[in-house]
């Protein structure tokens, strides 16, 4: 049996905006197991970051509302926890790394002091112990001359080095969960590969569970054990990385796979973009949100939401094509592992 560390159940998040209520996350369910890496993929605006921020209770107070759902972590619902307790959990048990390392770093404070203060706060270490641990963490993430670099300010590090420092800070307290939101998007390809390797190495050493948010299927292939595909605030397909890559069942997943270059594939093979754009989440209808863009739409798709169906152990999909009443001949080529 899998050892579950986090369970997100029926999460709904709305934003109150001038254009109405934006339903950014609409009934998200998933679990995260100990030591695994779960990738959340999807186009821009699909609700990946909002899901992560809801888990960490980092949504803006002014206009964000979690209207329902549970986030169970070690038998407690994070959404019901007093803010003070959440603040203790953040950074010590669940850490987050964002795309821009400067969101986590204070530009006016030396790197060493930032790491040392975090360690003292969360791990009750003396200044001396925290300094030794900070040096070791910097060495672990491959910062040369770690001891001297403690005295540098963030702007004296390169972008890739800054992200390494942020990962070092995020992992310094051996968190049980690391949520990495597009951690390598801002970096060039070589540095990107190094950072992903670093995260994998550290995970192998510490057993941390990782949720990685990305729109890059290369990152997914490199990192993930399981994948959740998000579209318009919902998880439309979920499965092991092999199932998602070699046996995609949702036309949106298929579209994503066909629209992105893959490693080890003939570079001359044409990429097919998904036509159209995601729906306006302030005026979303009742049917399948992908219906207007889906090449396999049936009438029912426009009026009724598809029901989630488990098609294989751990592989689930929300699509009318999976309904028993849908004739098999309507199944598109490519669905069922033939792309
Ligand atoms: N503070 C906010 N106020 C209003 N709407 C917001 C806010 N933050 C996010 N949204 C909306 O919520 C939806 C989901 O956004 P989210 O950032 O989760 O997307 P994403 O999948 O992470 O995309 P990206 O890859 O671009 O970060 C979008 O429609 C976005 O406009």
SSE topology sketch:
Blueprint: E1 4-17, E2 20-33, E3 37-41, H1 48-55, E4 64-73, E5 76-77, H2 83-89, E6 94-97, H3 111-123, H4 127-140, H5 146-149, H6 159-171, E7 177-181, H7 189-206, E8 209-214, H8 217-223, E9 226-231, E10 234-240, H9 241-246, H10 251-259, H11 299-303, E11 308-312, E12 315-318
Parallel strand pairs: 3-8, 3-9, 6-7, 7-8
Antiparallel strand pairs: 1-2, 1-4, 4-5, 9-10, 10-12, 11-12
Adenosine-5'-triphosphate binds next to strand 1, strand 2 and helix 1.
Overall tally of domains? 1
In the sheet with the most strands, the strands line up as 6-7-8-3-9-10-12-11
CATH-assigned homologous superfamily: P-loop containing nucleotide triphosphate hydrolases
Number of helices: 11
Describe this structure in words.
By secondary structure, this protein is of the alpha/beta class. The chain has a single domain, classed as P-loop containing nucleotide triphosphate hydrolases (Rossmann fold, 3-Layer(aba) Sandwich), CATH 3.40.50. It has eleven helices and twelve strands. The strands form two sheets. Strands 6-7-8-3-9-10-12-11 form an eight-stranded mixed sheet, sandwiched between helices. The protein has a four-stranded antiparallel sheet with strand order 2-1-4-5, with helices on one face. The longest helix has 18 residues. It is globular and about 70 Å long. The two termini are 32 Å apart. The relative contact order is 0.13. The model has no long low-confidence stretch (mean pLDDT 89). The structure holds adenosine-5'-triphosphate (ATP). Adenosine-5'-triphosphate binds next to strand 1, strand 2 and helix 1. InterPro entries: AAA+_ATPase (IPR003593), ABC_Ni/Peptide_Import (IPR050388), ABC_transporter-like_ATP-bd (IPR003439), ABC_transporter-like_CS (IPR017871), Oligopep_ABC_C (IPR013563), P-loop_NTPase (IPR027417). It is a peripheral membrane protein. This is Peptide ABC transporter ATP-binding protein.
């Amino acid at each position: 049996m899998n050892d579950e560390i986090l369970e997100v159940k029926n999460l709904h998040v709305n934003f109150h905006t001038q254009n109405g209520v934006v339903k950014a996350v609409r009934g998200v369910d998933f679990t995260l197991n100990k030591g695994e890496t779960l990738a959340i993929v999807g186009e821009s605006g699909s609700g990946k970051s909002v899901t992560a921020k809801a888990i960490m209770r980092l949504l803006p107070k002014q206009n964000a509302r979690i209207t329902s759902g549970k986030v169970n972590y070690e038998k407690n619902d994070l959404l019901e926890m007093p803010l003070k307790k959440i603040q203790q959990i953040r950074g010590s048990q669940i850490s987050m790394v964002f795309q821009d390392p400067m969101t986590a770093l204070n530009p006016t404070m030396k790197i060493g002091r930032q790491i040392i203060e975090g360690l003292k706060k969360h791990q009750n270490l003396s200044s001396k112990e925290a300094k030794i641990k900070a040096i070791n963490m910097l060495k672990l993430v491959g910062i040369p001359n770690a001891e001297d670099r403690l005295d540098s300010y963030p702007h004296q590090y390169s972008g890739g080095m800054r992200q390494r420092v942020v990962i070092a800070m995020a992992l310094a307290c051996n968190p049980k969960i690391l949520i990495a939101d597009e951690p390598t998007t801002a970096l060039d390809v070589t540095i990107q590969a190094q950072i992903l390797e670093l995260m994998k190495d550290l995970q192998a050493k510490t057993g941390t569970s990782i949720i990685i948010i990305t729109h890059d299927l290369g990152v997914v292939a490199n990192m993930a054990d399981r994948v959740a595909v998000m579209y318009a605030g919902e998880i439309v397909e979920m499965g092991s990385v092999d199932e998602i890559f070699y046996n995609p069942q949702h036309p949106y997943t298929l579209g994503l796979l066909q629209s992105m270059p893959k490693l080890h594939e003939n570079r001359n093979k044409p990429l097919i973009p998904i036509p159209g754009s995601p729906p306006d989440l302030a005026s979303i209808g009742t049917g399948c949100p992908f219906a207007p863009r889906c090449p396999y739409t049936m009438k029912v798709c426009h009026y009724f939401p598809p029901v989630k169906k488990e098609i294989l152990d751990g592989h689930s999909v929300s699509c009318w094509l999976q309904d028993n009443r849908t004739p098999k001949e309507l199944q598109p080529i490519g669905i069922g592992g033939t792309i």
